[in-house]
Amino acid sequence: MPVQDLDTKVKLAVYEITAETGRVPNSSQVSRKIDIDETEAVAAFGRLHAKRLLLPEPGDPSRIRMAPPFSGVPTKFPVEANGKQYYANCVWDAYGIAAALHSDAISRASDGHTGERLTLEVKNGAPVLEPYVAHFAVPAAHWWDDLVFT
Amino acid sequence: MLLFRSEETVDAWCAAHNLRRHPLINLEQLWQLAVHWYANRLTVESRRPAADEMVSIFASLGLTGPFWDPKSDQWK
User: What pTM does this model have?
Assistant: First the structure.
């Protein structure tokens, strides 16, 4: 199987499992879904990381910390869509989950400083606009230097 | 990337963390960024936009300058 084909299969498996379950899978779950050896899945995670399509968990290449816009761990940006709960990596990704799933969604997020509840909603395929703002602390040239901080 | 109720809470957050304030974007711009980045993420052909594509997407939303340039070396 050509490398590119395997990477594409792994990428699709990651996102399909995530969309279906609300949880980002590990290499074991991916390997079972597409019937490959788990070591192949781990290697594909590394190559997809090089393409900036996912971020393995630091110190554990069998797990995925981020499959943008989805987070592999709970965050301050929970997103409800299609009757499931997902976690987004940041405010951009909270909208990103609605965009990726082509679904309406609600994210009960909060103000980054005060903690006040700020709800983001996508309804009938469009955002319910509020006078909130998003702040990018890191310039575009360095977003992947430390993606967790970004 | 964090969400804030207003510019005032952004300023308070930056002061509390001793960080420089960078450009702010509104929710319409944020939604458009999300659609550009992720609308095809669950498909075979999905990929991250290339640097030049990123610049074009940002410019279409009025986001220009070195902060939005993925090739900028101003921030090293």
Answer: 0.92
